[in-house]
Each structure stands twice: as C-alpha cells, then as structure tokens.
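Q: What would this chain look like folded?
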Amino acid sequence: MRLLAQDISWLITSNLFSRELEWFQRKYIALLIEKDFATATGRVNQKRLLDNFLFFYGAEVLVAVNSMVNYENEQNWLFSIVRKHRKSFHPIRHLLVIRFLTNSIEEFFNTDYQYKRNCRGFSDSAY
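A: My prediction, written as structure tokens:
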C-alpha cells in the first residue's frame, strides 16, 4: 500500500499532460509482451496474468482497494483493462496494473515501451 501511495503522490506532484486511452493500452500490451504475459501479436495469456497479478498483490490488498479479480469472471476489470479500451477504469486500477508491470508510475511515464519483434534480421514495431 505504501508503494501505491508513493505512486499517487508522484502523480499529484508531476506536471503530466493527459493521454488518450489508446496510449495506455499500447504501453500495457508492450509491457505484457516484454514480461511474457502476451504473445508477440498481443494475445494475452489471461490465466498466467491473473495468477501472477494475484500473487504479486495478494487478495487482502486487492479487496482493500475494491479491485479483487477472479477466475470465474472472464469480464473482470484486469482482463478488460489490458484490452482495447472501450470504457474508463478507476485510476487505482491503472496504478495497480502499472506497478505490477513496472517498478513505478514514474518509470511507466518516462520510459518508451515499444515491443520490437526480431525476425531474420528485421525489426518492426508492433504498433
């Protein structure tokens, strides 16, 4: 919870400009691929993602911030937030995903995550 508070503090004190939902989705997918939670084409391994996310935070923390996820609901917020955004999500949930995929919110905003696929000497961007 302390790290979540640090991320919130950094957001409040930083001079960030707003980003489109697609900006977040592109970064999430690039990080999911980098962390081996998704294929090079962006297909997310939902079970692996959920297992690791639950292990990372634990049920107690997720319940405390009203963000518990479970296997029975394929439409849970975690699976939805890493797909093409068709709706908005609570900022706490974005912070949870960002902290899970990176070391901090600051790293997330200041690093250009872009998955590059290497195939026979060629490198092409997934976006």
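The first strand starts at residue 116 and ends at 119.
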